[in-house]
Design goal:
This protein is an alpha+beta fold. It is 16% helix and 29% strand. It contains five helices and 15 strands.
Length: 221
């Protein structure tokens, strides 16, 4: 799969098992995430178009793995478990959180990643990103300094991914900064700072900052 992805794209696709991933996150081992993946496969459809994101799914959070991850990875801080399913193939933009995000690939997928320190004047330039292939069944922790957004599919069927975050992340803001400047202009939801590509209409309609500069590249498979 990785060889084919590199053959059909004009950017290098790395594996999350490569050394290149070390500054973005780490591959999690020692946990059995298979019940979460089975739930996605049997209970959550892939939409015919676009993506669907659910921040918190009570059925997923009722599984024993929730308390295991909350204790071992998040140091007993409350977490939420949800999912992102879809058919995305383009960069669209970036988001980041003040805390780690865990993704579990319930299907093969790709992730477009960057670093927060690559943001200049609230903008990120296309060409500075790194693209990774995440094989089905792989769990990764993305550090709080890692820019990311929706996964990208590697088959016509689309993708499914488990998303674990500090509780409350990606939910509506109760208050917004008055006269925001600097980083505050990127705050879109709770614990969610976003740079959108200007062509990404759904994000722009939500009020995201148009901070992804350059081509909204499409990844092929």
């Amino acid at each position: 799969m990785l060889e084919r992805l590199n053959r059909v794209n004009d950017v290098t696709i790395h594996s999350v098992f490569d050394a290149a991933f070390r500054t973005f996150g780490n591959v999690l081992t020692g946990f059995d995430f298979s019940p979460l993946c089975r739930y996605l496969e049997t209970e959550t459809p892939i939409p015919a178009q676009g993506n669907v994101y659910v921040a918190s799914d009570p059925a997923m959070e009722a599984l024993p793995i929730c308390s295991e991850v909350q204790t071992a990875v998040y140091g007993n801080m409350p977490i939420q478990i949800g999912y992102c399913n879809g058919r995305n193939t383009t960069y669209n933009g970036f988001e980041y959180h003040k805390g780690s995000e865990i993704n579990v690939a319930a299907t093969d997928l790709m992730l477009v990643l960057g670093h927060t320190w690559q943001i200049k004047d609230n903008c990120f330039t296309v060409g500075d990103e790194t693209v990774f292939f995440v094989p089905k069944g792989t769990a990764i922790e993305l550090y709080g300094t890692t820019l990311h957004l929706s996964p990208c599919r590697v088959t016509d069927d689309g993708f499914r991914a488990v998303v674990i975050l500090p509780r409350g992340t990606n939910t509506p803001l109760e208050t917004r900064p008055a006269n925001p400047t600097g980083e505050a202009r990127l705050l879109l939801q709770k614990n969610k700072w976003v740079l959108s590509h200007p062509e990404r209409e759904p994000l722009m309609k939500q009020g995201a900052f148009p901070g992804l500069i350059g081509e909204n590249k499409e990844l092929h498979y």
